[in-house]
Structures are given as structure tokens and as C-alpha cells.
Write a structure and sequence with these properties.
The complex is a heterotrimer of chains A (about 300), B (about 375) and C (about 350).
Chain A: H1 2-32, H2 39-60, H3 66-93, H4 101-123, E1 128-129, E2 138-141, E3 144-147, H5 148-170, H6 172-182, H7 184-189, H8 194-220, E4 222-223, H9 227-242, H10 247-267, H11 273-287
Antiparallel strand pairs in A: 1-4, 2-3
Chain B: H1 2-26, E1 31-38, H2 45-64, E2 73-80, H3 85-97, E3 101-106, H4 110-122, E4 126-129, E5 145-147, H5 152-166, E6 171-176, H6 180-195, E7 199-205, H7 214-223, E8 228-231, H8 234-246, E9 253-255, H9 262-273, E10 277-281, H10 292-302, H11 309-326, H12 331-340, E11 344-346, E12 349-351, E13 364-370, E14 373-380
Parallel strand pairs in B: 1-2, 1-3, 3-4, 4-5, 6-7, 6-8, 8-9, 9-10
Antiparallel strand pairs in B: 10-13, 11-12, 13-14
Helix pairs in contact in B: 2-11, 3-4, 5-6, 8-9, 11-12
Chain C: H1 2-13, H2 15-24, H3 30-33, H4 37-62, H5 70-88, H6 92-114, H7 119-139, H8 141-144, E1 150-151, E2 157-162, E3 168-173, H9 179-200, H10 203-213, H11 215-220, H12 225-251, E4 253-254, H13 261-274, H14 279-295, H15 303-317, H16 326-337
Antiparallel strand pairs in C: 1-4, 2-3
Helix pairs in contact in C: 1-2, 2-9, 4-9, 4-12, 4-13, 4-14, 5-6, 5-7, 5-12, 6-12, 9-12, 10-12, 13-14
The chains are: A mainly alpha (about 300), B alpha/beta (about 375), C mainly alpha (about 350).
Chain lengths: ~300, ~375, ~350
Amino acid sequence: MSLFIQQLLNGLTIGMVYALIALGYTMVYGVIQLINFAHGDVFMVGAYLALTLIWAFAAVVTGAPFWVVLTALLLFGMAGCAVLGALIERVAYKPLRASPRLAALITSIGVSFFLQNAVMLIYGSKDQSVPEIIPHVRFEFHGVSFSLTQCVIFLTSIALMVFLTWFIQKTKLGKAMRACAENFEAANLMGISADRIIRVTFVMGSALAAVAGGLFGVYYGSINFHDGYLAGLKAFTAAVFGGIGSIPGAMVGGVLLGVLEGLGAAYLSSEWKDVFAFVILIAILLFKPSGILGENLPEKV
Amino acid sequence: MNFKFKILDFRWLVLAGMVFVLCGAARKEEVVLIGLVAPLTGDQAYIGTGVLQGAQMAVEDANAKGPLFGDAKVELLGLDDQHNPTQAVLAANKLAANPDVMGVVGHFNSSCTKAASAIYHEGRMTQITPASTNPEISRQGFDTFFRICATDDVQGPAAAEFVWSKLGAKRIAVMDDHTTYGKGLADEFEKKFKALGGTVLRRDAITQGEKDFTPLLTKVKSVNPELIFYGGVYPELALLIKQSRKTGLDAPWMGGDGIFDVTLIKLATPRFSHGTYATMLGVDPHSLPSAKDFVARYEARHGEIGSFSAYAYDAANVLIEAIRRAGAKDRKRVLQEVRKMKDFQGALGVVNFDEKGDAVGRSIGVFKVEEGKFKFIEEIKPA
Amino acid sequence: MRVSDFFKRLFRRHPFSCQVALFLLPFSLFPLIDKNVYHIDLMTSIGIYVLLAMGLNVVVGFAGLLNLGYAAFFAIGAYAYALLNLHAGCPFWLGLPAAGIVSMIFGLVIGAPSIRIRGDYLAITTLGFGEIVRIAFNNLDEWTGGPNGLLGIARPKIWVPRFEGGFHWETFSFSVNPTPYFYLVLGLVMFAAYLLFRMSDSKIGRALVAIREDELAASCMGVPVLKIKLTAFGLSAFIAGMAGAVFASKQTIVTPDSFDFVLSVLILAMVVLGGMGNIWGAALGALILGALPELLREFANYRMLLFGVMMVLMMIFRPQGILGSQLIRREMRTEKSE
């Protein structure tokens, strides 16, 4: 039993990271129905920005408490990626607003290639080691162990998700985003600036991905310019899992996917765990095509 | 005015053309090409670059000594295979189609070397791999294939011997990254270890590029192995080591040449990687008197030497020497000369090939990570 | 006068054969003009991409179904021929249609339940399927050789009639030389193009367009939507399967990592770049994206970076694709006013 709970906890940790990335996919999809392939790479850039800040910190200040470094690196990553997200939107997607949806899909693939190779050229193709900034503290409880790093990931992710839910539900901007997702044209007619909402969506999604990237780097201790691909694929799966376009869906989907993967690797086989995750995904789509929490919209006639 | 200028232009043009032709005639030295294929872009680009730089130095050394024959200069033609067998075959075709290319140093990854070897064989072109250790490649029966490094059926059993007799471990776990190289090495290790009487408690495989191995390691921990042997490359091993320590699995890790890279220690941190064993083909080039000059020149120019730079340097030198002896731009004669090559003095020691094209007498070095460095412990001579 | 009349009549009577001949036959001169073996080899690889792009175009361009796992059908074809050849000694000319059929069967099996799923969800199902196929080939070591792949796949053989010393057939086997493969692929591209032209002009083709434009309206008008979609799925898988067999016989090795998600995405990019729903567009897209990385080779490390930038630029300047079909453009406008 303790083994099961341990695996569950490990799955939850990575699931939180998936959920943060999945939020970006789902928000963008909700507003402009674009599968933003470059999002996984924005996550990866976030991880590299965090690493850069750790280097800078190590060079300037010594002996700063870990939460200061952590907050700084997450904020730095968020700021950097928010700018990057806005830039990508401006350059690669905005000119294609009136074009077929697949055209923007292709530019997102182009952006993804660009970001990966840009990071490779700047930081090199080797895996980069991320220094351990969070002290190695473990909590043991009936044979189940839980590290401080995992704790930090949980708290940060949950805080962000709560904030996002509040933002979407209560603020004016959040309501405008929901209006756009509900009916783009009508929202425009009601005086909501679509361009502004889309920009905000990209900025927020990218900032969340940056946090995920920073936490990911700190958790695993090594990052590579390729990491965005697999993590992006998983997060995207998670977004669909929960019902793409739905914000609580992305959170639930991400966490569930992480747990499923962890349990699959533990009780089936680590080689087949991705197959396991995808089979469940396809099964869900076949029986409930709109995902776990997605709305089943009736066909417009 | 205009007219005058036109005539002037015309004359200049003719003159320039003549100078050009003359220069061309004067510079009509022959160029012999050597191909080099390795992953030069993508996530293994750093290894490929190390290999390329090693071979490039061999070419420069050769040209500094004067022409190979007549006035022939040798040049290196580097191609990228992105460690993808399909790209490897495309690159092999490009080299095979170019009659100036006498032979190739490459490829790096066993899967690529194997896929491309058939193309070189059909093109009667000498292929010397600096790093592909999978034993299957030379069992295909291609007379054009040579290898400068030891094979995994030497490396794997040597590691098993070491674990069994020197470390005294009896009950262990084996893991691989499910690649041609990693799985091959782990298989050879497991076979020998079982033959010695040891018990393999678990045999698992992971996927390259994956990040989270905690679920698997939790399972490995439950069988309580004395050591874990890993067939694969260092990026995944670094994560495995770190995560195993975090799940409370304290058994030492061991791997082959693929993990022999200081980045492993950097990634896994000196604290966690302490006590990790690695076998390496041959000993550390820094400790070899024959490699001293090469290592010093390499590091002065490019920084820290890559794990396979010296192998690429030797492979290119064997090829250049064969071209020199053949004395002509003739692939078949170059191939014959490589076949006939005896006791070639390379930076890493004497090179001899057996009938399959594998280097003979290559010893295996065993290293242990101590205080953030790979420390040489012993040399296992081939049986 | 008479000659031009003859051509006019010919073109009117056989518009598709004439178009295919007009656009593709000139390529048969390529190996005669450019003797560089490497260029011929590259053109052969691009030809395989053209086949794949044409096949994917049926699903994405005609039927409007997004398929993100197309490489899986290519992989299934390649492995099908490899296994048939290695275990049953199946010759290439038998393996070629067999690979297509095996791939088609998989296409139908996957398509039948998932085709009801709408829009982007289908994209994810196919993406998942593509990953499952690749991982399965990688992990089923006993059958597929795992990551080492399958080696020693037979190259095609043809029989050439000889008259010297009495009539007899001489066997000629393909080799490293890419020229025979070039003609093989060119032949297949011509065959596929002709087939697709005929299809797009048939009842099925029109039904597909109707479904793409408005599925509900089409089904109300009595178009058997599921059956037509499945046909498109199967046909597209068939073409990919045949391309896979050619690929396997040319490489003589198949490994799972040749068929990753990036390949699926790349083929999709070819279709969209060339112009969805246009058969020549798909071919042109494949030609451009296939040749670009080679043309950018001299930029070494910056190659893929530039590749990404050019993909973005090309889409921005020509969002409907280079040869975007008129219909899709119209559809776009209606989509906006919806």
C-alpha cells in the first residue's frame, strides 16, 4: 500500500507540471481554436531562463535563502516567456487570423523548430545541469517519502491554479476571455478587443509554461532543448484528456495523466507506459469525445 | 567615351580570364577526400563535433607532412546523420556517389553505422568507425568495415568479470536504454555475468529522452540489488542516479563507454555520482604517452577532449596512411592497404584489425567516480 | 493545326492522364541531365515524400480530417514488406501491394471507431495511434527487432528481355544506385496522382468535398458520411503503405525512429504549405520542404533554425498554401462570417 501511495505521489508531482503546461494549450485553444505546437518549446525556454537566472544569482549573491532564488527564477522565467509568448503571437499567428486554422498550425510548427534550434545554438546541445537550489529535505510518513522539492511544486502549482480560476471567473479581463471563448464574433461586437484578449491569453499561457519549466528543471536537475517536445506532447494529451478549452479540465487532465503514467510504469512496464497513457486517451475520446470535463456542444445547424 | 570603356572592359575581362585559367592550371593539385559522418546537429551534436575535430586534426597533420602522393592533398568532408539511420544512409549515398571520396570515418551510433555499412560495401569504400561498439555490425560479413574501438562483446564481459571478481557482487539488476548500443552492451554483460554464476534480479529498459524514472526505481529498490548495470548513455544515467538516491536506492551504478563523460558527474552532482563505475575502451588518453602530443594540441585548440576524439584521430590516420601507401585515387587499392595494415602506431596504441575488421588487442579500462572525477582503477587486457 | 487539334481532343478526353504526363513525365529526364548520384537519391527521397503528401492530402485536404499520425501508416507499410520479405521470402512486386493493403486494413480498423470523433479530437486520436505504433515497433523485439530494426530487406528485381544468344529473360536487381528507384518512385507518383484525380472527380470525391464543406448538410442530402470518410482514410493509408514498402526496399533497413511524430508533422506541413485539397499542391509542398534542408545544408548549425523561420514566412505570405484550391478559399470566407 505504501508503495502505491508513493507512486501516486510521484505521479501527482509530474502531473502538476503537465497541468501547468496544459493550461496554456487549453486557453489558446479556447480562444482561437489553435493547437499551439510551439507551446512545449516555450516551456523549455522557461526552463533555460530559470537556469540562466540561477547562474546569474550564483555569480552575484551567495547564500541567499532558497525561496528567494526560487521566487526570482520563477518571476524571471514568467516575465521572459510572457514577452516571448506575446512576440510569437504577434509575428507568427496574428497575420494569420483570417486564414484557415491549419495555416497557423504550420507556423506554430515552424516556431517550434526555431525555438529548439535557437536554444541549442545558444546553450549547446548537451544536457545542462540545474544546480540544486532547494535543500534536500525529505518527509517520511509510514514508508512514504516526500521531498521538499515536491512540496514546492505542489504549492506553487495549486496557488497558480487558484489564481487563474479566480482571474477567469472574477476579473473583467477573465470574463472577456470567457466571452471570446464562448463566441468570438459576439464578444467583438460587444466591444471586447479581440487582439488584446488573444495577446493576454498568450502571455498568461506562456507565463504558466515558464513556471512549469522552472519547476521541471529544479525537480529533475537537468534540462535539454529537446524536453519541450515530449512534455508538450504529454501536456497536450492532458488538455484533450480533460476536455480541450476547459480550464479545470486541463488541471484535472494533467494531474490524471501524471498519475496514470506513474502507475502504468510501476505496475505494467516503464517501456509501455506511454502506450498505456495513449490507449486510455483514445478510449476516453471514443466514449466521451469531449474529454472528462469538456462541454458537449450541440452541432450548430 | 562609352565605346572606349567597353573595349577596355573587354580587354580586362580577357586578361582576368587568362589569369584565372593560369592560376587554375598552376593550382591543379589533386584533392583526395575522406568522409566523416556523425551527429553534427541535434542533441548529440557535441559528440559529433568532438569526432569531427579529431579527424580534422589528422587531416591537417597529414597535409603538414606534404602531399600523400604526387601533389595530392587530403581534405575532410563532414556530413551530419543526426543519429538517425535514415539520414545515415542518405549521407552514405552522398559519399559513395563522389568518386573523390576514398573512405569514411564513421558513423558514431551503432544503428547508423550498421545501416550505412551496406552502402559502403556496395560502393567498395573503406569504412572505419571510431565509436560504434555493437558486435553485430562486423558479423554482417562486409569486407569494407573496420572498427578502431573495442566491441561490446569485449566490453560487456570485461565489466561482468570486474563486478563478479573484483567487487564481489552476486545479485544485481541490469537496465538498458533500449537502443542498439545500450541493449547490446547490457545483453553481453548479462550473458557473461550469468555464466559466472551471478544472479540478475531484474532486467528493465527505459526510453531515451524520458525524465521520470522514479516508478521504475521504486520497483528496483524492492529487490535490493548489490549493483545496477546500465547499458546506455549518460544523460539518462544521470537522472537514474539522482532519482535512485532520492528513492533510497543506494546500490552503486555501472555503465560502459557511453556514460564515460564528465558531464555525467556534473548532471548527477559529484555527491550522488560518487562510487559510479564505468568501463571505457582503452585507458584515459591523458594517461597515454603515445597520445600526449595529440591531447595537448587538441585541448589547446578546442578545449577539453571529447571521449571519442582520439579514436576519430586514429581512424582518420589509418585511412590517410592507406591512401598514402596505395599511392593513387583508387578505392579498391585503399581498401586492400587497410586490410594489409599491420601494427599501425596510433595515438591510442597499436592498431591491428582481425578478419572481421574489428580492432584486436584493445584493452578495457575500469574507472570509478571519486570526488567529481573519473579515476582510473584498472586495465582489463583482452583474453 | 491538326496536330494541335489532336492534342486538344486528347486533353479533353483524358484530362487527368494528360495532366499527369505533362507535369510528371519531364521528371523522367532528371537522371539524364543531372548525373550526380546524390541528387538522384535526394529526388527519390523527395518522391517518397510526394507520395506521402498526396496520400495525406486525401484525408486532410479532401475530407477535412486532421491526421497527426500519418507516419504510422508509412511505418506499417515498411514493416509489413520487411516482415513478409524476411519471413516468407515475398518478392518486392508482391510486397508492394501487400504492404498497401496491410496498411489500409490498419487504417480502417483505426478509422472505423474514431472517425465519428469530430475535428481536433480525431487529430489527437491519430497522434496517439502514431505514437502507439512507433513504441510498439520499438518494444516488440521478437518480431520487429526492436530499436535495431529489421535488416537485410530485399531490393526489387526486374526481368529484362534479352535477345542475344536466343530469347531469354535476364534478372536485374536494384542496387545502391538510386536511378532505378527514382523511376520506380516516379511511376508510383504518377499512378497515385492519376488515381487521386480520378477519385476527386468521382462520386466519392464530390461527397468528400461536401463533407468537408458541411458535414450535416451532406448527410442530410443522403451522403453516407461515415462510409465516405472511411474510404478516404483507407485510400490514404494504402498510399502510405506502398510508400513504406518502397522506403524499406530502398533503405534495406527499417528502424522505428524513422517514423516519429516529427515526420507526421512534416508531411502535414507539406500538404498545408502546398495547398490543401490540391493534388499538385501536395506534391509541390513535398518538393519544397524535402529539398529545403538540403539547400540549407551549408548553413550547418543554423539549418533547422532557418527551416523553421521559412515555414513561418511561407505561411504568412501564402496562408492558403502555394496552390491553395479555390474551394478552400471560399470556405474560409464563409467560416469567418459564421
